[in-house]
Amino acid sequence: MAAKKRNTLRNKAATRLGNTSKVDEVKTVTEFTEDPKAYLHQFKETKKEKLNNKQNDFLSKIKNNSGSLNAEFDGISKSSVRRRKRKIRDNLKPRLDDLLTSLQKEDDLGEFTRENVDMNVTTDNINIDQNPFSPSVVNPPARIQVTKIVKRVEPGSIKKRKNEPNIRNKKGAKLLASKERKRFNEVITNQVFKQNSFSALRDIIKMQKE
């Protein structure tokens, strides 16, 4: 027994709508297909340009993070800036060797390198009543020059004194500060320092090196 064909209006309308929707889907797919060769002509960044951009980004990041007001330290890390500032401070510190070298050029330092012993024998001290033909008058004794040998001291070397308070300790730093204040007052009130400050400074440096 054969089945009946149900060609009702509802079935006909449904089949008609289904066919049209399939056709529309196929049309939309065919209309918006992309070209597979479209990305072949796009701009590509080379390795050299990529490396340069990376370096520039890194330098700008360091410059922004440094936060230094001085334009001289732009683009330098904080640790490097600290090392440079520490080196500048060390160069500004007073050096006793350089000061002693400059003081040795003065005339008043001759007594520390060479001592001239004057025997007080001059032609002015010779008695006029003496025989003018005596050998002491004709050939007066010359000045005797005595050279003092000074032990060579290495530059920058200062003799360490034992049993001195340590500046790293709180108690030792306090004792050293009080001792330094006392010595400073003595130097200021010293008459020798007021008359010739360079000579007094030279003597202090010599005492520290001995």
TrEMBL record:
Pfam families: SLX9 (PF15341). It comes from the Eukaryota. One of its GO terms (cellular component) is 90S preribosome. Keywords: Nucleus, Ribosome biogenesis. It is found in: Nucleus, Nucleolus. InterPro entries: Slx9-like. GO terms for biological process: maturation of SSU-rRNA from tricistronic rRNA transcript (SSU-rRNA, 5.8S rRNA, LSU-rRNA). Interacts with the 35S, 23S and 20S pre-rRNAs and with the U3 snoRNA. Involved in ribosome biogenesis. Required for normal pre-rRNA processing in internal transcribed spacer 1 (ITS1). May be involved in the movements of the replication forks. Belongs to the SLX9 family. This is Ribosome biogenesis protein SLX9. It comes from Maudiozyma barnettii.
